[in-house]
Design brief:
Helices cover 19% and strands 32% of the residues. The protein has four helices and ten strands. Helix 1 packs antiparallel against helix 4.
């Protein structure tokens, strides 16, 4: 399977371009060239391929890898969503899974999730652009989309994945922000890294995965 990181980063880079002009449909954006001021980026401002750990939610029957795992603060008990914060990169991750009363697809799960978090997902599907299949978790029909925004000079980026399997919905939302001359590069790099290395490796478990098989009885 071809590495999706460059593809995702190119899409994110297109969306965070200074003009905020979307790529034309079907157009493949070129990966952003290194910037002359890139040396000003703080070491902890973006993710690296180090310090990986696995975040497992017993409540939502899923697990996913996290870079720089010790710096993530996870709350999986106080709200309806699993919420994780990574302060060095100004990043947040939200995860939720639930069952519907009928068979669903990713679009139905997205509509339900939008009613829960319009602040992140907007009020209609047009808020997310450059949609594409994700291919994870196994057995799910999953689509991921992106959005960008500016607030008081800071650039914010969101990647949201919506998955469906029979009557089950799964939603993963990643949001980050940055300011300064490197904001576009930072947001594109973080979003691309998380979608390629975290979203694409999420695993959904079933109740059977939590049941320890009985040891065979001796004769």
């Amino acid at each position: 399977m071809a590495d999706t990181r460059l593809t995702i980063r190119a899409a994110a880079g297109c969306l965070v371009a200074a003009s905020f002009t979307a790529c034309a449909p079907g157009q493949t954006a070129e990966a952003p060239a290194p910037r002359a001021e890139a040396q000003r980026i703080d070491a902890g401002a973006s993710f690296s391929d180090h310090g990986w750990g696995k975040l497992t939610s017993q409540r939502f029957f899923l697990s996913l890898p996290l870079p720089d795992a010790r710096e993530w603060h996870v709350d999986d008990t106080s709200g309806r969503w699993l919420a994780a914060t990574h302060l060095p990169s100004k990043s947040m991750l939200w995860v939720r899974s639930w069952r519907e009363g009928a068979v669903v697809n990713h679009a139905a799960c997205e509509a339900a999730a939008r009613s829960y978090r319009p602040d992140l997902l907007g009020h209609d599907e047009a808020a997310l652009a450059d949609r594409r299949p994700l291919g994870a978790p196994d057995g799910f029909d999953t689509e991921v989309g992106f959005s960008v925004s500016r607030n008081k000079g800071a650039l914010g980026g969101v990647a949201a994945a919506f998955g469906a399997r029979v009557r089950q919905c799964l939603v993963i939302i990643y949001a980050t922000r940055a300011d300064g001359p490197d904001a576009e590069e930072l947001v594109a790099d973080r979003v691309g890294f998380v979608v390629d290395r975290v979203f694409s490796r999420v695993e959904s478990r079933t109740i059977d995965d939590r049941v320890v098989p009985l040891a065979p009885r001796g004769r």
